[in-house]
Amino acid sequence: MGFDTGTTTFMILSTSLVMLMTPGLAFFYGGLAGKRNILGIMIQTFVSLGITTILWIAFGYSLCFSGGEGAIFGNFDMSFLQGIAFNQAYSGADGQYPTFIFIAYQMMFAVITPTLITGAFVNRITFKAYLFFLIVWQIFVYYPFVHMIWGGGLLADWGVLDFAGGIVVHTTAGFAALASVIYVGKRKDVKSPPNSIPLVAIGTGLLWFGWYGFNAGSELKVDAVTTIAFLNTDVAASIAGITWLIIEWIKEGQPKFVGLLTGFVAGLATITPAAGFVPLWAAMVIGLAAGSLCFVAVQFKNKLGWDDALDVWGVHGMGGVFGTIMLGIFASSAINSQSGLLEGDTGFFMKETVAVIGAAAYAFVFTYIMLIVINLVTKVKVTEEVEKLGIDAALHGEKAYDEGSL
Q: What Rg do the C-alpha atoms of the chain give, in angstroms?
């Protein structure tokens, strides 16, 4: 059959942009890590491109998007994509492009979501345990929330909305990160400085660029909502970054580049659930809230002594929570047929709030229990000697840089 070439091309491009976010995250985290743990954190990110793809084709896509109306999981009817012809039209976009593109697009979300967690436990977890973590966490945390919200499951029936992953991606990953931090405990060297801030900047740029595919692409077609989601994404990120920069400048007495970059990512995470549901002015407010509230969350984390090394909980976890709640407040029927609290829909606001709190609680509790179980199979925490030597040399037998270059 004939497909719309413009929409098909847009979805291929969006899929490619979301794929680019995973290497971007590796650079972002790799730059923030101490110099003895650069490769350890980067391999945890890159390996998801392989393992998650295998899982997704084998049964992940089926569990998320096959059957299971009003349920927590789908079924295995489309395992290994059986019954889906390569030229079958995707019904969710009025048949404008093949289903295979939708499968690939959603697969890139599955690839990056668990890797967000890795920044929390940098240099404290064995690679073997991480592989178990990567597989089990996707199956029992990521897949259910994809199905429940985007696959016609329980929360979708309830009326919960999440444009591009405030609940599905950022809240679940952020609170799983917090559970991981509490389980593995503090690093021996908590003041380990970033090894390469320019690398962090490259990672931020790639993440921001990829986020256009992440958010605008989540409309799953090309229309006016696609364009407002694109612009909302950019504006919220920009305002969040400047907000973070100013707050930290006032507090520390100096403008910090890492703070600016972190603020940008906080804005991107926070606008994600609301990007295609709110007007531009609301995206500006969300950006302001992201830059300030996520900064406060990070300070709160520091005060409590949680060693979330790369601030996954404060930026992604709380960004996802704040963004979802603000979706419940600012959603406008003039943008995408859903009113929020400001337009009088108290029920929708309550649903979003309850859903995101429930997702956070489930992700936290399941992840903590999962780590206990994984530790019975293989040691989760590295030894003190390994941590002192560094993950790169001790576990992988490699170094990011030649001796003397750092």
A: 20
**How many CB atoms are located within 10 Å of the residue 73 CB?**
21
Mutual angle of helices 346-377 and 318-330, in 10-degree steps:
160
For residues 222 and 6, is the Cβ–Cβ distance under 8 A? Answer: yes
DSSP secondary-structure letter at 70? T
Per-residue pLDDT tens for 214-250? Answer: 999 999 999 999 999 999 999 999 999 999 999 999 9
pLDDT value at residue 96: 96
Quickly tell me which residue has 């703070």 as its tokens: 259
Beta carbons of 66 and 76 less than 8 angstroms apart: yes
Q: Where are the domains of the chain?
A: 5-396
pLDDT, position 1: 60
Q: For the structural domain made of 5-396, what CATH number should be given?
A: 1.10.3430.10
pLDDT in tens, 149-193: 999 999 999 999 999 999 999 999 999 999 999 999 998 877 788
Residues whose CB is less than 8 angstroms from the CB of residue 67 and which lie 6 or more positions away in sequence, other chains included: 74, 75, 77
| Residue type for position 368 | Y
* Tokens matching residue 213: 């595919």
Q: Which of 160, 148, 73 is nearest to 354 (CA)?
A: 160
CB 180 within 8 A of CB 374: no
Q: Describe the crossing of helices 99-116 and 5-32 by its angle, rounded to 10 degrees.
A: 10
Angle at 108 between CA 12 and CA 165, to 5 degrees: 105
Structure tokens at 281: 């002015």
Q: How far apart are the first and last CA of the chain?
A: 57
Q: Which residues of 354-384 are buried (b: 16+ CB within 10 A; e: fewer)?
A: ebbeebbebbbebbbebbeebbeeeebbbee
Amino acid at 202: I
The mean predicted confidence, pLDDT, of the chain is 96
Amino acid letter, 80: F
Q: Say if residues 136 and 124 touch (Cβ distance below 8 Å).
A: no
